[in-house]
Structure formats: C-alpha cells, structure tokens
C-alpha cells in the first residue's frame, strides 16, 4: 500500500515513449491504418505477384481482339479439332506447314508437318476487323500469319481457335465472378450491419433466413433457375442473371462475417465513449463500425471471388450457365466433357489452365489482403 | 465552455486542496436500488430461462468534488454499475438522480432523449483498456475532438485549438494530434482517453479501472494526473477498481460490492482501518504486504463467489463468511448505518453483526502515516449523509 506514496514524486511527465519525446520529426506515428495495411501487403511477395498476374490477365481481357489472331466465333470445317500449330524458328519465327498426305496403299489420309517451308509470323499484322474499346475500328493484331491459320492451342470441334476463345472467354469468366461478389458484398454488408447492430428479433429473423438460404442445395437450385431462364435469352441478359444467381449464394456467408465484426466493434470501448458523449446510432455505424469493418469486408470478398469464378465455370460446363454463342471458360470446357474427345484431342483442356491460374492468383491475393488487414487472425 | 471551466476550477480549488470532508456535502449523484439484470436465453425460441443479477439493488451517493471508489472482485458488478449509471447499459430498475447545475435533479434512469442529450456531456467515462478504447482508425486529434463534434460545441480552428489545449492539459504535446493511437504507449493512450473524457467539461467521470492495465510506474503518473485534473477542474470521480492500494490513495470514500450489492460504504480511513463487514475484512487481508514483519494472519476465504444467476439466500456472503450464524442464510441484512457509541458515522454496512464483530482492518505499514480512526475522522467533520 505504500508503493504509490513513494512513486508520487515522479513528475507529471509523458511516458517513456522515445518517439514522442523526440523533437518534431514529421511523420512519426502519422501513418494511417490503411497505409500500414498496404505496407504489410507489399511484404507478401506471392500476393503481389498474383496481383500483377491478375492485372495482366485483365489487360488481356480488355485487349482480347488485339491479342487474338483469329475471330473466336469463326467456324471452319477444315480445322475441326486441329492440332496446335507447330512453332519453329527455322528462317525466323514461324509455324510449320501442315500437308495432308494420302497413303497410296491404304488410301487413308494423314497429316505431315513440314518445317522447311515455315509460314512466318507477322507481328502487328492485319487480321479480322474489330473495334478497340468498342470505339476505334481497326484490324491490327499482335500476331498473324498470311497463309493458313495460327492455332496456338489447337481448334475445337467446330474448328474455332481455342487460344483466341480463351482470351475472349476471360472477358466473361473474370468479370462475372467479381461482379457477383460486388453485389453480394453490398447486400451482405448492409444486411450484416443491420443484423449485428440492431440485434434483437431483427437479428434472429435475418439469421434464420440466412440459415434457410444456406441450407438450400445449390446445384439443384441452379439447375431449376437455368430451366426457368428463357432459352432464347440474349448473352448480356444471361450474363446479368448469372451475376445475380452467383451473388445470391455468396452474400449469406458475407453477411454473417460482417455481423460478427459489427457485433464485436459495437461493444468496443470507443463506441461506448461515443455513446456517452451522446452520439446517435447512425453516426456510430458510419464513423466507427463501417470504417473498421471495411478492411475485413474487402478481405473476405476477395476470398469469395475465386469461388464465384469456379461456380460460373462449373455451371457453364454443365450447360446451365452461359451457353454457346457466349464465350466463357466454362463454355470452352464443355468440349472436354466427352471422354473420347479428351483422349484424341487433349488440347481442348487448355482453357482449364486459365481457370487454374486465375483462381490461384485470386486465392493468393485474397490471402495476402487478409493477412495485411488482420495480421493476428 | 472554457470559461465555465476556469470558473469551476477557481471555485473548487479553494476547497479541493484541503480536506474534502470539510467541503459542503451536496450529493452530485444519488443511486437508489439500481438493478441491472441480464437475461439468460436458451432453447429453440431463445426463451428467457434465467437472469444474471449483475447489479441487484445498489444504493450509493457521490458527493460533488469527491472520489468515490467502488471495489470488489471480478464479476461483482462494479463495472456494470458504472455503465448503468451512464446508461451505456440500460438499467433494469432503480433510480439514478443526477443533480445538474442547470436542469436540477434529473432521474437518468427514466430520462427522455432530449434530457439525456443534455445530461450525457456532464457524465463521462474513462476505460480500463487503453488499447481498446481508442479507435485505431482515427487520429488522436479526431478521437479527442469526437465528443465536441458530436455535441456541435466547436468547429474549425476553435476545435483544433481546444484539442491542442486538452493534449497539453493531460501532459501530451499539441503536435500529437495528427498521430494515430498505435504510436503511443499504454500510459499515453490512457492520457488521450482522459483528454476525451474531460473535453466536454463534465461534472462526473466514471473511471472504470483506469490504471489496472498499466505498469505500476505509469499507474502513478496517471493517478497523479487524474488528481491534478480533479482539483483544477472540480471533477467528481467514481473510481472503479480492484486495486486497494490505488483506492486507498485516491479515494475519499469507498463502497465495497459483493455479488451485485454494496455491502459496505464509508470514508476511506473508516473502511480500511475499521471495516464493519466480514467481506471487507477478507478483501483487506488479501492484500499482499511487502513488509516481512507483517505476515498474513487471517485464513484466506474459501470457496468461490456465488453465481449472480443463482445467488444464495439471505446474506450473499454467508456461504463463505467465517462468522456466519443461522440468521445469515435466512434474512438479507439491509445496508444500515453503523453506530459508534450510539452516534451515526456515515459508515454503512450490510451485516447482521456489524455492531458486534471486531474485524481487522488493513495492516498499518511502517512507511504509512498513522491512520485516522473512525472517531478521529468524525472529529474532523465526517459526512453525515
């Protein structure tokens, strides 16, 4: 009981923080939480690399027509399930010619590649016409050939260029998931915040509804929705309907996460301090709860994107998502659903690599963001 | 706002420096039969299947300019009492009368929105955990300005000036306003919390274990700052703590709580050296003594604190009381005045035998000054409330 009496002599001086006692050094302790998070994020190499790869992939989606040597929708009976073109450096970069040879004995035809008379690759050459950004009409492409067809990853059942279709497919596949998650995030944040802050019967009702939605088996639900969708629907119509379907199943998990965060922040002492100063509920939500929960919401949404992309791919693969005139990775993979096709023309599986790359990158990026936002979770 | 502070400060400093007992005893806050029950819900429909009586009929009053300490072990409801008084937890029942200089006596428990909006700035709170009580996304300047912004007291440059003034007031520097809380140590953060609490020139500050999370050396600094502010700004503290040495140092009067009830309340000297409730005796004896000549003589309490969801009958302490008699498990003893030689002392205890028991007080340390006895402090003008 005497400790205090002895220590009473200590000056009324600030505590032992060196930083605070140092003469005016600009910037000390003036780094906001957001900037600290960005610093932490930059430290995780894997996440940064994934982010860069994703940016490149999105740029690829924007410049899809420029990158594609062939019109992705062009059907060509001569190139059905054609092998990927054989690249050669014989006489500059080019592709080998393919000649059909008929065996004089069996009269069966087979293909012979001839690399001695390679067809040269032409960079920034002319190809099919398109409008860059939907505005500037042009016909320039990154790589073209003058003769034959440049099929980097082979052709599909209707002789369409798989490489070009893959690039085009990213436009749908890489945006539909993100858009779905954005809608889900808005829905989940609002409902989760209401549920976590208002509590009481409102919270109970919302939570029971979420439980019911979560317990509906997803695949039959999707199949039903696909059956209800009019078959002659336009590609854009289907696209937006798909985003809504994807967001309907993801918002529930998000709403729960947000609710939990809001509940814990609503009991924080700084919220109590604001209350004791007479702050209104809406002010507390907007100045304390939402900014604190925001980073967590971003991290959780990031991690929901790969799931949504996979869901779109799976649905399109099953024929209940995007349908053929539309080009998405799931639609491309439909060709790979027959075992004999897969056996003879394995290159139809190449679009799956794009899915794997994209999903992995989103996964790693999401992990990096989560670690930067909540280093202790 | 600032003007009123200086007025108040000069007003109080005349009396604040001397013995607080000699000041005129106007209660600032009177709490009568305050209850806060938490429902225990269970089952499919989340029906109420029981109640935790965290605060179960607390009676106390806080005089203007004094420091009333509330002590008790973890879970005895001392923090909940503080929060219920500020309506951070909605009280289940009882009366909380706040004597405001403008509005007169206001029952905070049943006050409407408009009245609450005017009363809230008069009652502020300092929290235990300095790491959880500041929003990490706000600069220190915004944290301190928040109460002023909410109540639209100041704007623009006047607001920034007031924040700088408050920072200096609590021993920090004005340029700290642009920093974020993570750049500060625990003690500094607690100073920021104090600056926020005094921003609105409150009358009453509920201090919810303000130094428990700090190092002992820093504790002393913060306590000294709080005492300094009290005398300069004429603050009234309700000091919630479990650290008896801090309580003895800072408080004028002490209330001891056990399982949601006040079991003893009196001046610090009376309560520490002449306790009238066996629980207070047990608490005081449990304080470790740094002096090898004063060894523990009392057998420590056995058993656990009863659950506030199903408290025992009669006196809640009878299950652990070494002096328990049959009546203790049958009748609940009211909080009543302890009489010394037939005279009222202002010292209240809730024990059937408070007049008969001879209880041991705090051990007089060789370094401490000789404590005042109950009669001595009365001679100096003990409260008669």
UniProtKB/TrEMBL annotation, chain A:
GO terms for biological process: transmembrane transport. It is a multi-pass membrane protein. Gene3D superfamilies: MetI-like. InterPro entries: MetI-like (IPR000515), MetI-like_sf (IPR035906), OppC_N (IPR025966). One of its GO terms (cellular component) is plasma membrane. The chain crosses the membrane at residues 46-67, 174-197, 209-229, 235-254, 345-365. It is found in: Cell membrane; Membrane. Pfam families: BPD_transp_1 (PF00528), OppC_N (PF12911). Signal peptide: none annotated. The keyword Transmembrane helix applies. Keywords: Membrane, Transmembrane, Transmembrane helix, Transport. Residues 170-366 form the ABC transmembrane type-1 domain. Belongs to the binding-protein-dependent transport system permease family. This is Peptide ABC transporter permease. It comes from Microlunatus endophyticus.
From TrEMBL, chain B:
GO terms for biological process: peptide transport; transmembrane transport. GO terms for molecular function: ATP binding; ATP hydrolysis activity. The keyword ATP-binding applies. Residues 1-20 have a biased composition (Polar residues). It comes from the Bacteria. Keywords: ATP-binding, Nucleotide-binding, Transport. InterPro entries: AAA+_ATPase (IPR003593), ABC_transp_ATP-bind (IPR050319), ABC_transporter-like_ATP-bd (IPR003439), ABC_transporter-like_CS (IPR017871), Oligopep_ABC_C (IPR013563), P-loop_NTPase (IPR027417). SUPFAM superfamilies: P-loop containing nucleoside triphosphate hydrolases (SSF52540). Pfam families: ABC_tran, oligo_HPY. Belongs to the ABC transporter superfamily. This is Peptide ABC transporter ATP-binding protein. It comes from Microlunatus endophyticus.
């Amino acid at each position: 009981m005497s400790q205090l009496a002895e220590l009473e002599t200590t000056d009324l001086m600030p505590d032992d923080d060196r930083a605070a006692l140092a003469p005016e050094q600009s910037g000390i302790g003036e780094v906001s939480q957001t900037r600290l998070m960005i610093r932490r994020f930059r430290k995780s190499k894997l996440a940064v690399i994934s982010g860069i790869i994703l940016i490149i992939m999105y740029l690829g989606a924007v410049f899809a027509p420029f990158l594609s040597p062939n019109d992705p929708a062009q059907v060509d009976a001569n190139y059905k399930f054609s092998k990927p073109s054989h690249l050669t450096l014989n006489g500059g970069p080019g592709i080998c010619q393919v000649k059909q040879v008929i065996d004089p004995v069996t009269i069966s035809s087979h293909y012979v590649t001839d690399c001695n008379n390679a067809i040269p690759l032409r960079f920034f050459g002319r190809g099919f016409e398109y409008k860059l950004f939907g505005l500037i009409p042009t016909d320039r492409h990154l790589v073209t050939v003058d003769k034959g067809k440049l099929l980097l990853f082979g052709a599909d059942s209707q002789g369409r260029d798989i490489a070009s279709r893959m690039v085009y497919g990213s436009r749908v596949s890489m945006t539909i998931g993100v858009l779905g998650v954005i809608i889900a995030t808005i829905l989940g944040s609002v409902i989760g915040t209401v549920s976590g802050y208002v509590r009481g019967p409102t919270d109970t009702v919302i939570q029971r509804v979420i439980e019911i939605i979560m317990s509906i088996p997803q695949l039959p639900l999707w199949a039903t929705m696909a059956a209800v969708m009019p078959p002659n629907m336009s590609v854009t119509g289907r696209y937006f309907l798909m985003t809504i379907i994807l967001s309907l199943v993801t918002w529930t998990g998000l709403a729960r996460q947000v609710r939990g965060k809001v509940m814990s922040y609503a009991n924080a002492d700084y919220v109590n301090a604001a209350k004791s100063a007479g702050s209104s509920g809406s002010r507390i939500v907007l100045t304390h709860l939402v900014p604190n929960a925001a980073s967590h919401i971003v991290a959780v949404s990031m991690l929901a994107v790969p799931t949504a992309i996979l869901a779109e791919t799976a649905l399109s693969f099953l024929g209940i998502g995007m349908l053929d005139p539309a080009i998405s990775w799931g639609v491309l993979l439909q060709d790979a659903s027959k075992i004999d096709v897969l056996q003879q023309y394995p290159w139809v599986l190449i679009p799956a690599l794009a899915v794997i790359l994209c999903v992995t990158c989103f996964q790693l990026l999401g992990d990096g963001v989560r670690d930067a936002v909540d280093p202790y979770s | 706002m600032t003007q009123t502070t200086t007025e108040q400060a000069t007003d109080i400093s005349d009396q604040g420096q001397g013995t607080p007992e000699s000041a005129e005893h106007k209660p600032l806050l009177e709490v009568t039969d305050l209850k806060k029950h938490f429902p225990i819900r269970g089952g499919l429909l989340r029906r109420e299947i029981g109640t935790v009586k965290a605060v179960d009929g607390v009676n106390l009053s806080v005089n203007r300019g004094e420091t009333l300490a509330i002590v008790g072990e973890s879970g005895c409801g001392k923090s909940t009492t503080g929060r219920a008084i500020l309506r951070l937890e909605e009280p289940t029942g009882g009366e909380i009368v706040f004597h405001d200089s403008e509005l007169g006596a206001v029952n905070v428990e049943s006050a409407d929105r408009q009245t609450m909006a005017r009363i809230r700035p008069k009652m502020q709170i300092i929290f235990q955990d300095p790491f959880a009580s500041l929003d990490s996304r706000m600069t220190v300047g915004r944290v301190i300005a928040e109460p002023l912004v909410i109540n639209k007291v100041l704007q623009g440059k006047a607001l920034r000036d007031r924040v700088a003034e408050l920072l200096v007031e609590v021993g920090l520097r004005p340029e700290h306003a642009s920093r974020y809380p993570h750049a500060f140590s625990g003690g500094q953060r607690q100073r920021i919390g104090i600056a926020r609490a005094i921003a609105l020139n409150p009358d009453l500050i509920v201090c919810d274990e303000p130094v428990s999370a700090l190092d002992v050396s820093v504790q002393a600094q913060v306590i000294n700052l709080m005492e300094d502010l009290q005398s300069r700004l004429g603050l009234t503290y309700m000091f919630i703590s479990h650290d008896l040495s801090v309580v003895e140092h800072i408080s004028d009067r002490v209330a001891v709580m056990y399982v949601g009830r006040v079991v003893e309340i009196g001046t610090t000297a009376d309560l520490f050296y002449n306790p009238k409730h066996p629980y207070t005796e047990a608490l005081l004896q449990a304080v470790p003594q740094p002096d090898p000549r004063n060894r523990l003589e009392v057998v420590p309490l056995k058993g656990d604190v009863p659950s506030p969801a199903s408290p025992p009958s009669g006196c809640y302490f009878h299950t652990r009381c070494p002096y328990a008699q049959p009546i203790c498990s049958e009748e609940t003893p009211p909080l009543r005045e302890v009489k010394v030689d037939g005279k009222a002392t202002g010292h209240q205890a809730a024990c059937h035998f408070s007049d008969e028991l001879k209880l041991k007080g705090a051990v007089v340390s060789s370094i401490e000054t000789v404590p005042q006895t109950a009669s001595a402090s009365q001679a100096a003008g003990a409260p008669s409330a």
